[in-house]
Sequence to fold (184 residues):
Amino acid sequence: MAHWYTADPHFGHSRIIEFCKRPYRSTEDMNAALIRNFQNCVGFDDDLWILGDFAFGQSTDAARFENWFHQIPGRKHLIVGNHDDEAVAMLPWASIADLKEIKDGAQSLVLCHYPMITWNGARRGSLQLFGHVHDQWAGSRNSINVGVDQWNFRPVQISDIQRRAKKLPVNKHWSDVEHGNELD
Fold:
């Protein structure tokens, strides 16, 4: 069993291609590519953590949401995002939360759709994984954007996240700035 992380697939969202300059000709192409990428990574017994914005549409699109949901392997967990309405919440998720603290091996993680300035364990090696911001901002050494737009439209594992984290700058914590203790 492995853990996989992703955010912001926005299944069914026709304007996301334009907004985020995604390399797809149509929403159907995007949906198919995302599902294929998820199927190529995630195993049947794996846990897939989707950090918000699974699909975009209206409650009348529930059957489409369910179709996409069931094409993706693994036990799917939803960390609720700003576009996850009742039709998304009604899917048979293994768990649903606004914020979740988990361990992946020895690594402590805080999962939230939104990037945070600080979180439980931030100064003790805990990583915060988020989505929501689709641009090229990838976070900092202990706060990583796992959105599909940042990771070639596929979910990632903790080893990928830790490798990227080592290349990013260290967070400056507000308490340090306020007290004149700037971090490098």
Q: What stands out?
A: The chain has a mean pLDDT of 88. DSSP finds six helices and nine strands in the chain. The beta strands are 3-6, 47-50, 75-79, 95-97, 99-104, 107-112, 127-130, 139-140, 143-145. The helical segments are 16-19, 27-41, 62-71, 86-89, 158-167, 174-178.
